[in-house]
Description:
It is a single chain. This protein is α+β, with helices and mostly antiparallel strands. Strands 11-15-16-17-18-19-20-14-13-12 form a ten-stranded antiparallel β-sheet, sandwiched between helices. Strands 3, 4, 5, 6, 7, 8, 9 and 10 form an eight-stranded antiparallel β-sheet that branches. The radius of gyration is 35 Å and the shape is globular. It has 15 helices and 20 strands.
Amino acid sequence: xxxxxxxxxxxxxxxxxxxxxxxxxxxxxxxxxxxxxxxxxxxxxxxxxxxxxxxxxxxxxxxxxxxxxxxxxxxxxxxxxxxxxxxxxxxxxxxxxxxxxxxxxxxxxxxxxxxxxxxxxxxxxxxxxxxxxxxxxxxxxxxxxxxxxxxxxxxxxxxxxxxxxxxxxxxxxxxxxxxxxxxxxxxxxxxxxxxxxxxxxxxxxxxxxxxxxxxxxxxxxxxxxxxxxxxxxxxxxxxxxxxxxxxxxxxxxxxxxxxxxxxxxxxxxxxxxxxxxxxxxxxxxxxxxxxxxxxxxxxxxxxxxxxxxxxxxxxxxxxxxxxxxxxxxxxxxxxxxxxxxxxxxxxxxxxxxxxxxxxxxxxxxxxxxxxxxxxxxxxxxxxxxxxxxxxxxxxxxxxxxxxxxxxxxxxxxxxxxxxxxxxxxxxxxxxxxxxxxxxxxxxxxxxxxxxxxxxxxxxxxxxxxxxxxxxxxxxxxxxxxxxxxxxxxxxxxxxxxxxxxxxxxxxxxxxxxxxxxxxxxxxxxxxxxxxxxxxxxxxxxxxxxxxxxxxxxxxxxxxxxxxxxxxxxxxxxxxxxxxxxxxxxxxxxxxxxxxxxxxxxxxxxxxxxxxxxxxxxxxxxxxxxxxxxxxxxxxxxxxxxxxxxxxxxxxxxxxxxxxxxxxxxxxxxxxxxxxxxxxxxxxxxxxxxxxxxxxxxxxxxxxxxxxx
Length: 708
């Protein structure tokens, strides 16, 4: 084996004597001074380039080739030493784990039953119990099938499931106390019809809680605790977990660093699944305790995020937390998140929400998905999985709070998203931390304006004179926005693809019968379309919300001008406001228009609804407006998410690219009242709504010079 000059970097002394054997090479050993100099240089630069090797060779009297070989051997020697040290540490860790394993095995041999204090079940006894339970289960299934067949004879339809079976059934069923779901929309099966004396049954909530076994509760607690520990580290530490994106300077999660610390299995076992991560912080105009209370109440939580959270409910409160701080609160919840376009499927999560006060005035609220495989859970919930996400809330001396938010989810939504929105949705803005914090900041500011008696109001006609009237109008505007956002999922939609073009999605129509309070009773047709425009979203947003430009797109105004008679500011940004508009429609002189606009990180939103003058006068007097029937329509403008333009609305001043925007237009029309609800909706009515929205889109494109 031939050794290169320089050996392994150790040793010293003078030159070796010549070897008398033929064919053997002469070996040189470096002097201690040479080795000391080489070692010193190696600490600073283990990979010298050609110039550095030449300089070292001239300084030490060695050839550049000798310097090169010495550094190669030194790097090999250093790597071997590190590997040997790592192997020793791993060997010690392995021995420790083996000892712990043996100790645990010995402890399991002496374990006692926690219920009776006796010895544990042996394998044979455990197997006998399993067989006994299997036999009892088979008997229950057989009796269940008999009862289902009996009911099917009387109902004329097969009974697929029994909703209200008692939680613990014995060997036989007590028919006098069993309850069964009805086949219509209300009540239960009448007792005399079957002769079984069955009491009436209410329609079951799909999220009704029947109780969790202790083992599942323990698993929930452990899952929430582990998620809390992970989220605290993600929120408090930037590097090595978070790095700034080169495209938008926002924080994204460094996957390699994250997975080294937090080992995670992929919950969505499909190649098309992807990970979204984002982090953002901001100061909001609300105290920490108020925020915590609103986050733990699903109705108030939806009020804080009306343009993002379209549905939310608490399935079960596992721990209510400490009185006063809510620390330790643990809930199993459901939520539906939306991007406000019928072309994008909503995201649905079943998750644990855990609140912990980690310091005085500092709370952390973590959300983490939980495999709640129960009746009523939609299939779409298996396409979205929430990894530990949430926020840290820190009280500030001025009554405000600093909120730091992290979103981390695994999703599979490519097949559920129209091509117009794929660029926007595939980024972190559509459902990311920046959008959550931006919306929270706007809504907290709106609530502060709502509570302030001196909120700026531009009242041109002396319409609003009382603070109570201003608050009533603002609350009505908030409910109008919530109702508008709630219908954009377009469930049960009909597609009309004849409008579909390269930059247009066609018109989607949904028909529903409304009996809910706060909406007109009768049959309502909702129509929506989304399209791409080669303009910045700020330009489109300003055009839509300017009442002077309304005649250029509002088909129903018949070209007549409209006037803003009252203007209420909802925040610092001029785009956040509630307005009362007086249209000039000769045959509708008893009607006003309530309009609300807002600006968020994703873009802008303009919502409006016609309200008769007596109703709006009652609201201006400060009367309760919660049940005022209102049927909103409106527009949503956002960036297109393409790399050359970014996704954010240019009004926020962050990305001013020359790219385009996405516009969603949605109308709602009451086509018949409650007296005519049983009549079938003909296609002529749907075609009329289709023509209305199509005409509006064409007018907007012409007005913005985008019709080519």
